[in-house]
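User: Peptidase A1 domain-containing protein. Structure?
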Amino acid sequence: MPKVVNGTIGLGNSSFSLLSQLASMHKNRRKLSLCLPSKPAGLGSLHIGGVSPYTNDVSKNLASTPLVIDQTTGGYFIDVMSIEIAGNVVPLGKKRRGNAMICTLAPYTVLQGSIYKALVSEFVREAKMLRVANVKPFNACFSSKGMGVSAAVPVIDLVVKGGAKWRINRWNLLVKVKRDVVCLGFLDGGVTMKTTEMVIGGFQMEDHLVELDLEASKFSFSSSLLLKNTSCGQNRIV
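Assistant: Predicted structure:
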């Protein structure tokens, strides 16, 4: 997965960022489209400007939610109103505005401790898979021996402000950690997460097209491109 992050290549909201400078230089809209590949050899894509490089069946069918920008750090946040697993709501506890940071530098999504424990408990309850010993840093691991496409892996929906659901399917949930063992790809952030309860990491964004429109303060996202028999690692999305 490419290490694309606000600070690394200047995608933040400052006037000195790569995004702002290129938008000013080429008179483009301050908007970026990002597609992270799931395959190590995949190149993915990063596009800056107002015109999406993707075909209508992907880019014209994105769900959206307000984008919240931290004026101090330039970080990007969205409001996750609730989390659902197979339709069951996971309690989030006390919420803060802009409670989920978008951060591709984080390899996996990190949750505040109590939310993480509730999510793992509900996922394990719904998953029809044989649980095995944990493999650090994960706390819910399963046997993948003989696991086929029909395996009962519950989907996780992030219900964002405005009512749209960012659906996370099995490809972005289960991490292969060794032969015949997969783990739920979320991490426990403990109780010390003070500015946000959730950091949405790169693994959960792989093979999803995401767009950040700074001028419209809007964050948009697709469903998994694997459902369309394509991926972010392909040269063209058709």
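The helical segments are 18-25, 56-59, 113-126, 202-205. The chain has one domain: 18-228.
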